[in-house]
Known about the structure:
Elements: E1 11-17, H1 24-29, E2 37-43, E3 50-54, E4 57-61, H2 63-66, E5 69-73
Antiparallel strand pairs: 1-2, 1-5, 2-3, 3-4
Amino acid sequence: xxxxxxxxxxxxxxxxxxxxxxxxxxxxxxxxxxxxxxxxxxxxxxxxxxxxxxxxxxxxxxxxxxxxxxxxxxxx
Length: 76
């Protein structure tokens, strides 16, 4: 499952990053790296971009870039 596949309100953590895709290194500098907890907040009208929460900050990410981050859903 990728970051782009999450539904609103779902908590997950990043398990794998395709760092060779365009724009992904910029997102990694902002904290989207393996092991980081993320929460899908919502998507814009039309579905792109999506808003995610990372370390208390909100980030807007294009779905194309979000597909480069493999995540695992957190189960409590």
